[in-house]
From TrEMBL:
This is ABC transporter ATP-binding protein. It is found in: Cell membrane. Pfam families: ABC_tran (PF00005). It is a peripheral membrane protein. One of its GO terms (molecular function) is ATP hydrolysis activity. PANTHER family: NITRATE ABC TRANSPORTER ATP-BINDING PROTEIN, TAURINE IMPORT ATP-BINDING PROTEIN-RELATED. One of its GO terms (cellular component) is plasma membrane.
Length: 265
């Protein structure tokens, strides 16, 4: 008898979605063409594409912050129609409460989580665990004004991760940082993601960041009515380190391919 192999059901299924917006000249303009993607639990997916092609729009639909026009996005088989605690978001810029310390900012997010039954002490421990994971234990008692931009971003990342969502959505999470801080945080994010074994969907403009962090890279063509033109499996094993990845011939091949596909559209 032939053995039947059944793939695990995807944690996220983007099932025939399209999306457009009202447009002053045309009445309505479709921004995202019909899109189908299956994402397995534990995968790190990156979406790249030319400016304005609809990357953030797709992420907002995944977050339940924007509705789909056609099709559906399913999280473990259930349509995403509103934000939920299963879907964490890290934006380019974090709004931290300026009168609270780094730790209090994380604890506050945990306290306001619906249905939380944890004690103050447990929440504080969880906050400290995630601040430690982003190397910020030493700054836990400092307020945002006492922290650098990179440190503030790390508090934002710790806060989102501490909520322990099933899927973490990252919209240009390191986009506002200088090159050196950005590279440091890429390495930290790589370690954090490999430890966490969660599902990640990230939007970035940075091809190197995409190659370092992802298992799959979805390349969008230019809009309007943009489609995913490539779905690339990144061939580097895990755990990864930047030096080994950057020395791999396949890295340079993929990098040129990705840069070429971004500039040719
Ligand atoms: N709420 C909205 N109303 C009208 N048009 C919108 C809305 N949100 C996005 N758009 C339009 O949809 C298109 C895609 O926007 P989106 O922000 O998703 O692109 P992007 O690929 O993330 O761009 P970038 O790389 O520059 O951040 C743009 O033309 C934008 O003006």
């Amino acid at each position: 008898m032939p053995q039947e192999t059944t793939a695990a059901p995807p944690v996220v299924k983007i099932d025939g979605i399209t999306k457009g917006f009202p447009n002053r000249k045309k009445g309505f303009q479709r921004i995202v063409a019909e899109t189908n993607v299956d994402i397995q639990e534990g995968e790190f997916i990156t979406i790249i594409g030319p400016s304005g092609c609809g990357k953030s729009t797709i992420l907002k639909m995944l977050a339940g912050l924007e509705s789909v026009d056609e099709g559906a996005i399913l999280l473990e088989g259930e349509p995403i129609t509103a934000p939920s605690r299963q879907l964490g978001i890290v934006f380019q810029q974090h709004v931290l409460l300026p009168w609270m310390s780094a730790r209090q900012n994380v604890v506050f997010a945990l306290e306001t989580e619906p249905g939380s039954t944890s004690t103050k002490e447990e929440l504080r421990e969880r906050a400290d665990k995630y601040l430690d994971l982003v190397n910020l234990s030493h700054a836990a008692d400092q307020r945002p004004s006492q922290l650098s931009g990179g440190m503030q971003q790390r508090v934002g990342i710790a806060r989102a991760f501490a909520l322990e969502p099933k899927v973490m959505l990252l919209d240009e999470p390191l986009g506002a940082l200088d090159a050196l801080t950005r590279h440091e945080l890429q390495l930290q994010l790589l370690r954090l993601c490999e430890q966490q074994k969660r599902t990640f969907i990230m939007v970035t403009h940075d091809v190197d960041e995409a190659l370092l962090l992802s298992d799959r890279i979805l390349v969008m063509g230019s809009g309007p009515n943009a489609e995913i033109i490539h779905d690339i499996t990144v061939p580097f094993g895990r755990p990864r380190d930047a030096e080994t990845v950057e020395q791999d011939a396949k890295y340079h091949e993929l990098r040129s391919f990705l840069l070429g596909s971004l500039t040719s559209h």
